[in-house]
Automatic annotation (TrEMBL):
<keyword id="KW-0297">G-protein coupled receptor</keyword>
<dbReference type="InterPro" id="IPR028082">
    <property type="entry name" value="Peripla_BP_I"/>
</dbReference>
<dbReference type="InterPro" id="IPR038550">
    <property type="entry name" value="GPCR_3_9-Cys_sf"/>
</dbReference>
<keyword id="KW-0732">Signal</keyword>
<dbReference type="InterPro" id="IPR017978">
    <property type="entry name" value="GPCR_3_C"/>
</dbReference>
<dbReference type="InterPro" id="IPR004073">
    <property type="entry name" value="GPCR_3_vmron_rcpt_2"/>
</dbReference>
<feature type="transmembrane region" description="Helical">
    <location>
        <begin position="509"/>
        <end position="533"/>
    </location>
</feature>
<keyword id="KW-0472">Membrane</keyword>
<keyword id="KW-1133">Transmembrane helix</keyword>
<keyword id="KW-0812">Transmembrane</keyword>
<keyword id="KW-1003">Cell membrane</keyword>
<feature type="transmembrane region" description="Helical">
    <location>
        <begin position="704"/>
        <end position="724"/>
    </location>
</feature>
<dbReference type="InterPro" id="IPR001828">
    <property type="entry name" value="ANF_lig-bd_rcpt"/>
</dbReference>
<feature type="transmembrane region" description="Helical">
    <location>
        <begin position="736"/>
        <end position="759"/>
    </location>
</feature>
<keyword id="KW-0807">Transducer</keyword>
<dbReference type="GO" id="GO:0004930">
    <property type="term" value="F:G protein-coupled receptor activity"/>
</dbReference>
<dbReference type="InterPro" id="IPR017979">
    <property type="entry name" value="GPCR_3_CS"/>
</dbReference>
Length: 782
């Protein structure tokens, strides 16, 4: 249970307060009992038991300092300091009684100087007590006498109030700093979920109040905070044991006296409650368990008997003390020099009083004969360390962080694991090693955020991953940060990365295939045009209106090439060019097909007796019809580009993790007007071609036009739902596919059969063969 204890102890190098040396009040006994026979009888005098070895060591430190000063010629030459000691035994009543005896000169002492003073002694200062509550009682009583009370171990921040305790000084820092240091210590290790126990007195309540306030500011949660006193009923102490046993916090902050700590530790051990990290104040952290019982009258005799567990006047076969026992064989708290910082506080206190007396004696006639000792005017250096008091009688706050480590011999070793110096900047005040963690919830890693658990303190939370497009790049982040519009969160949600930009490019496979199809279609058109040009005087070429055929081939080549404007990163010129070029070239193409269809119908009408219709639709009228139909589309495109032209647009709504680069239509009416006009001409052409499909002719061109228009209309009817439902760059690919499919349909249906006859069936490429079926049909009809 005593393993891995960690707390704050006064640092050896502290700037201390001063300790009086003429008289001292110490608790040489760590326990006391008050017996009485019945409720109607007067209580019997207090009886102390169990020798406190640490307080004995403190007394030895005071005696060492006094002897050193008396043997020095630099301070108080010709004068000697004396001392008298009182045993308060941890009792307020005995402490106040001893203080009044010292102040009044009615001195029933526990131990006196070996060489009595030649003159009646006047008390110059009182050293003690360890307990803050006892010091508060003593300082209140002796305050009107202006008699300095100097404590080496009382740390309650309330004692810094000079209005209440004007003559109180100390050589150990105030709990105001220790409580803050404890909170920073807990926060340093990430212990955000802790329990708290305190002694129910001024020391514990004031110290824990400051710790709780600082802990709240640092985001530390207390699962519980309980108090007790060692004389409380058994039921209350057991209730505290149950609170600890059923808690989830694995770190306990104990602001307690060592006597109260001894009680709670033994209770926890008895109930087999272990596995906790204890963080404690200086009051108990330097008190390893040493339950040594003794009886006797003289202080040193008691110490010797307790230390070696023997008796000088042995009874009942008890081991007899010889006085020659070897201290080097003893391993306990008395021989543990890790307590040296506290001994140094006593040492500095003695020297502070001596320097104050020395300063008074040097001022000669300029001093008031009724001047009292004032340690606050002292500023000295002892053992290379500057000693002084601030306006509240406190030294500068410096602490060592002590870790309890059990040894193989069964004793406890105090190991320094860190330092705290309140005089340094905040970020440098605390330096220490790492120890285990105690938290309600594990830290939320970057990429997540904290979500408080319902009905629990703020230290209990769940870690929720940041949503898509949000990041957190710090531990225990409360919120996630939204990435800028052009950025997106990476997979770990810890950084915003540039969104992927998507458009149909020439480098990718789909873009390359469509480009190849476009260029191949253009080449095919050029080959067909070359064939028609070479065989332009043959009957098939001439019978199918060669002028419109060449114009149709030219428009088809433009249709194939205009698909290339849809590939690549959209820009202002490409967005305006792609739709207008597509609209105009396709209207030119359909106009030529429509002209050829009308020519077929007119030619058949012209073969009838008395018909003269061809003069109304001769070559000039055919050219004008193509130009008229195309100009209408040009006008629609000009209006579209003038009013609201297409423009490049970053589509960030369709996909959250990437940007689709596309061409916005600008005016939806303009876009659908272009497509609607093409559709209108295509439907008209299909109807006329369908009507002319059964006209008598060995090579009826209307039949092939019907097939081509059927393919054209089917492609563009299926285009609309496919275009709307296709994501990102695939919508552009669908539009290119529709352009290429309809262009290939026109080229293959209208021109490939004629090229086949021209190249592979030249015997059919005669006027007689072309017109034979038509004439036979006319004769039969006649």
């Amino acid at each position: 249970l005593y393993r891995n204890k960690l707390a704050l102890a006064s640092k050896r190098g502290d700037r201390p307060s001063v300790l009086g040396t003429d008289k001292a009040i110490l608790s040489f006994h760590s326990r006391w009992i008050n017996k009485q026979d019945s409720y109607t009888q007067k209580p019997k005098p207090l009886q102390c038991t169990s020798l406190n070895l640490i307080d004995f060591q403190l007394a030895q430190a005071m005696l060492f300092a006094i002897a050193e000063i008396n043997n020095s010629s630099d301070i108080l030459p010709g004068l000697s300091l004396g001392y008298k000691m009182y045993d308060a035994c941890g009792s307020i009543a005995r402490a106040v009684s001893g203080a009044l005896a010292l102040a009044n000169g009615n001195e029933a002492t526990f131990v006196s100087s070996e060489t009595p003073c030649t003159k009646s002694a006047q008390v110059q200062a009182i050293l003690g007590e360890n307990s803050s509550s006892l010091c508060m009682a003593i300082a209140t009583v002796i305050g009107p006498f202006h008699l300095p009370l100097i404590s080496h171990f009382a740390t309650c921040a309330c004692l810094s109030d000079k209005a209440k305790y004007p003559s109180f000084f100390r050589t150990i820092p105030s709990d105001l700093y220790q409580s803050r240091a404890l909170a920073q210590l807990v926060r340093h290790f990430g212990w955000t979920w802790v329990g708290a126990i305190r002694t129910n007195d001024d020391y514990g309540n004031n110290g824990m109040a400051t710790f709780t306030e600082t802990a709240n500011q640092l985001g530390i949660c207390l699962e519980y905070s309980v108090s007790f006193f060692r004389t409380d009923p058994e039921e209350k102490i057991l209730n505290i044991v149950n609170v600890i046993k059923h808690s989830s916090a694995k770190v306990i902050v104990a602001f307690m006296s060592y006597m109260d700590m001894d009680v709670i530790i033994h209770k926890l051990s008895y109930h087999n409650v272990s596995g906790y990290q204890w963080v404690g104040s200086e009051s108990w952290i330097l008190h390893a368990p040493t339950p040594l019982n003794s009886s006797g009258n003289q202080l040193f005799t008691k110490f010797w008997e307790a230390l070696f567990r023997c008796e000088f006047n042995s009874k009942n076969n008890q081991k007899r003390c010889t006085g020659t026992e070897d201290l080097s064989d003893v391993k306990n708290s008395f021989t543990d020099m890790s307590l040296m910082p506290i001994f140094n506080n006593v040492y500095k206190g003695v020297y502070a009083v001596a320097h104050a007396l020395h300063k008074i004696l040097k001022c000669n006639k300029t001093c008031d004969t009724n001047v009292t000792l004032d340690p606050s005017m002292v500023r000295m250096v002892t053992k290379g360390e500057e000693v002084y008091f601030n306006e509240n009688g406190d030294p500068a706050a410096k602490y060592e962080i002590i870790n309890w480590q059990p040894t193989a011999q069964g004793t406890v070793e105090f190991v320094t694991v860190g330092l705290y110096d309140a005089s340094l900047p905040v970020d440098r005040q605390l330096t220490l090693q790492n120890v285990p963690a105690s938290i309600c919830s594990k830290p939320c890693l970057p990429g997540t955020r904290k979500v408080l658990q319902k009905g629990k303190p703020v230290c209990c939370y769940d870690c929720t991953p940041c949503a898509e497009g949000e990041i957190s790049n710090t531990t225990d982040s409360i919120t996630c940060i939204q990435c800028p519009p052009d950025f997106w969160s990476n997979a770990q949600r810890v950084a915003c990365v540039k969104k992927e930009t998507e458009f149909l490019s020439y480098e990718e496979i789909l873009g390359a295939l469509l480009t190849a199809a476009s260029l191949f279609g253009t080449c095919m058109t050029c080959v067909v045009a070359w064939i028609f040009l070479k065989y332009r005087k043959t009957p098939i070429v001439r019978a199918n209106n060669s002028e419109l055929s060449f114009l149709l081939l030219f428009s088809l080549s433009l249709c194939f090439l205009c698909s290339l404007t849809f590939i690549g990163r959209p820009s202002e010129w490409s967005c305006m060019l792609r739709h207008t070029a597509f609209g105009i070239t396709f209207v030119l193409c359909i106009s030529c097909v429509l002209g050829k269809t009308i020519v077929v119908l007119m030619a058949f009408r012209a073969t009838l007796p008395g018909s003269n219709v061809m003069k109304w639709f001769g070559p000039l009228q055919q050219r004008l019809s193509v130009v008229a139909f195309t100009l209408i589309q040009v006008l629609i495109c000009v209006l579209w580009l003038t009013i609201s032209p297409p423009f490049p647009f970053k589509n960030m709504k369709q996909f959250t993790y990437k940007i689709i680069m596309e061409c916005a239509m600008g005016s939806a009416i303009g876009f659908w007007a272009v497509l609607g006009y093409i559709g209108l001409l295509a439907v008209l052409c299909f109807v006329l071609a369908f009507l002319a499909r059964k006209l008598p002719d060995n090579f009826n061109e209307a039949k092939f036009i019907t097939f081509s228009m059927l393919i054209f209309c089917a492609v563009w009817i299926t285009f609309i739902p496919a275009y709307v439902s296709s994501p990102g760059k695939f919508s552009v690919a669908v539009e290119i596919f529709a352009i290429l499919a309809s262009s290939y349909g026109l080229l293959c249906c209208i021109f490939v059969p004629k090229c086949y006859v021209i190249l592979f069936k030249p015997e059919k490429n005669t006027k007689k063969n072309v017109m034979g079926k038509s004439r036979a049909t006319l004769k039969t009809n006649t």
